[in-house]
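User: Could you write out the 3D structure of this protein bound to iron/sulfur cluster? I've included everything you need below.
Assistant: Certainly. Input first, then the structure.
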Amino acid sequence: MTDLETLATAAGRELEDASAQEIMRWAAETFGSKLCVTSSMEDAVVAHLASSALPGIDVVFLDTGYHFPETIGTRDAVAATMPVNVITLTPRQTVAEQDAEYGPDLHDRDPDLCCSLRKVEPLQRGLTAYDAWATGLRRDESPTRANTPVVAWDPKRRKVKIAPIARWTQADVDAYVQEHGVLLNPLLWEGYTSVGCSPLSCTRKPGEGEEGRAGRWAGSGKQECGIHL
Ligand code: SF4
């Protein structure tokens, strides 16, 4: 077991009941510039929490080439108005290059491969500069996220993975957004509850009574893009 792994395991136990602010402060003090936040730009809640603990922190955004204009606009607004350093990671291939090699609309035929090429690999590459990364994962988002630890060892990337709002509910998020005037992706006002890539097979509005992530890869059986598996 590495020192970082030991640290992550102990922190996961000790910080389970800590507030999101306390978790981010611990992360900032422990990792400093070797800590980043990843954001899908659905909202800027974790970026806001992180910038409060560590002004100037790197906020990593995966630009898959398939984002809604509103998501790119949210990224630009975060970069322009918050004390953070937004870093945009891109896949090795443009969408056109991917289409040429794999055929068009790979997201409709093999979304796991598309996510692997456009999200998982770029993140793996982008995280090499850090010892720890913080995410906005929440336990109440879906059954696949129900056991998300607040701090854990990420064996795939050999990093400490931090989920400061893991214990939050949607109501907690809404209250934080309200209190701090946090930026939101405008698509949330249009009925989307989870914002991913723009192809309909990847993101659609959830139906009446469906859980928040039901509109992601709906009907395919796929629930996660792979960066959190
Ligand atoms: S969410 Fe869809 S378009 Fe985006 S990388 Fe995954 S499969 Fe491709």
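Residues 64, 66, 107, 111, 114-115, 118-119, 196-197, 199, 202, 225 surround iron/sulfur cluster (CB under 6 Å).
User: Perfect, thank you.
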